[in-house]
Amino acid sequence: MKSDICTLSANDIESLKKVLSETEKTAVYAALDKKQSGRLRLLAEELVEMLPSLLAFTAGEFWIDCNGKNFELHTTLTPNDSLTSEKRDELLKVSSSGKNAAATGIMAKIRLAATFMLIDYEKNAAEMPATTDFYHDGMGVNPYFPISSWSLENYRAKAKSEQGEKWDELEKSIIANIADDVLVGVEGKKVEIIVKKAF
């Protein structure tokens, strides 16, 4: 089952509220219990918190696919006319400086992975400093995207093997403790974020 599609806009705060109401409707439809519904809503809330900065230069859509108790929260981002080459250069410069890359929190890293893909990160990878290790640590292939994508599960596996600061950060993260995986990848001209959760 696919939920209704919510159109997202930085200028329309109500569109972000629709993400939460659509999540609640889907939880009812799937007959989730109170605890499961709460967890699904928490995942949607985490997405909503990071979207405004991404929607400043993209158009977005949100929907949920569910098959039994397997859920995927989908958010697609399509660069709009305001993402000029100058804006791309500016975003890359800020990212390269480490100001954004050093942001704490897993959601900040997921948002930054989406931003990197929107600014054609792969073409500029050689210019990126070591502060973007989180991006490389999460890269891999999966059946959702034709080219490589960033995965929370890949990042989690790398952090677990190192048992350092990255692992500590994951243990404090709501999304890392609830979601089975978060994927960020490119599909055509869109960047898609998929949050996966099975109950």
> Measured on Cα atoms, how large is the radius of gyration?
16 Å
Strand content: 15-25%
SSE string, helices as H and strands as E: EHHEEHHHHEEHHHEE
Q: How many individual β-strands?
A: 7
Low-pLDDT residue spans: 95-102
Strand order of the largest sheet: 1-2-3-7-6-5-4
Average per-residue pLDDT, rounded, comes to 82
Shape: globular
Major β-sheet profile: 7 strands, antiparallel
Annotation field: number of helices:
9
Distance linking N and C termini: 16 Å
Helix proportion range: 40-55%
Q: Based on helices, strands and strand pairing, what is the structural class?
A: alpha+beta
Descriptive overview:
With 199 residues, the chain is an alpha+beta fold. It contains 9 helices and 7 strands. It has helices at residues 13-29, 34-55, 85-96, 106-118, 121-124, 133-138, 152-162, 165-172, 174-178; strands spanning 6-8, 58-67, 70-79, 139-140, 149-151, 181-187, 190-198. α2 crosses α4 (106-118). The longest helix has 22 residues, at 34-55.
Structure characteristics:
single chain; 199 residues; alpha+beta; 7-stranded antiparallel sheet; 9 helices
Tell me briefly what this model is.
The protein has 199 residues and is an alpha+beta fold. It has 9 helices and 7 strands; from the N terminus they run E-H-H-E-E-H-H-H-H-E-E-H-H-H-E-E.
